[in-house]
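Worked problem 6 (solution included).
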Amino acid sequence: MLAALVPVTALLASVFVLIAGHGLTSTLIPLAGSSFGFSDSSIGLVGSAYFAGMLAGSFTVAYILRAAGHIRAFSALSALTMAITLVMPMVAEPGPWIGLRAAHGFCIAALYTTIESWLNTRTHKDWRTRVLGVYNIMHFAGSAAGQQALTFIPPTDFRLFSLAALLMGLSVLPLCFTRAEPPAPPEGKRLRLGWLWSIAPASAVTAFLIGWANGSFWSLAPLWGSKIGFTPTEIAIFITSVIFGCAAAQLPAGYVGDRMDRRVVLAGFAALATFCSLLLAFITNLATAATVGLIYGTALPTLYVMCSAHANDRAGPHRAVEVSSSVLFLYCLGALVGPALTASLMNRPGPFILYLINSAVYGMMFAYIVVRIRTREKVEAITPVEPEPVRVK
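Solution. The predicted structure is:
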């Protein structure tokens, strides 16, 4: 395991620092928007704009990597993300924030694809989900660290935006001093959604549904917390508990995912997310919400890891950028729809609708994966395996 991590150690260190800033920003923005007097619909649009930007970023990242390479692309995108974060408290209005959050999403999508394609290219299939699990541990450990600033600085204070920007800027330092060779620039430059569907339909469909549910949660969970009476500190505690759950499950899930059909693991965590979402819809106590959130968090990144790893298994390492960008595109497409629709309903039925909708989406995901597993088993059972012809030398 250690040998598999050595070539990507600097990258993982950069991920930790980058996501400490990004995780702080993700929780800060809906809270700051609410403090500035933004309506719920406006906050939902800001969340959807982020995923619209991610959609555009996933569409164009292959061009960026082909032109600049992985290290220069990471450095440029981190610097741009830092600048966008610094501008946000200067123009605290819904309109500018929608545009800035979209630009932020563009950069983050390109950064995610850069990181994940790097990891998939440099990792053997037998270690893939475990290495991606360590990546997610660094991701969520960084995010949990960033959240803690909310416990002693109010969300309207510009220093939180400055701290997040500072961390994003510092994330380039580990990569600047690494001697590890980055992957070669990708050969392909375009999304191949039809191709992804043909090789891994389970990944194509679940990527969209994961984006819908997970995007709604990360965009609107802070708003849900404020509407049921949680203070900013209590919201940070709840989000941190979810993040700890995200990190805790990665190595065990990766170990299992490297030894069995990844779709089975995907189905199991979809069922768990369905159940936890249903529970959270009826919880208003912080201790209970944090406990369920810890369990719920084990599913959120694992679903995406298994989805991505399954597609990469079918495609091969030379197609890592195409797979990463295509899966991320479908994820962002779902995340573009989810927050806007859910936020528009949170005023009328109530904030609990966030988790009822998510429970339904995860339930559809579980049902589809089970159908795909059974369909493939039937095809393999009725399709005879033809022996390879003997070649005369």
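Discussion: The two ends are 41 Å apart (CA to CA).
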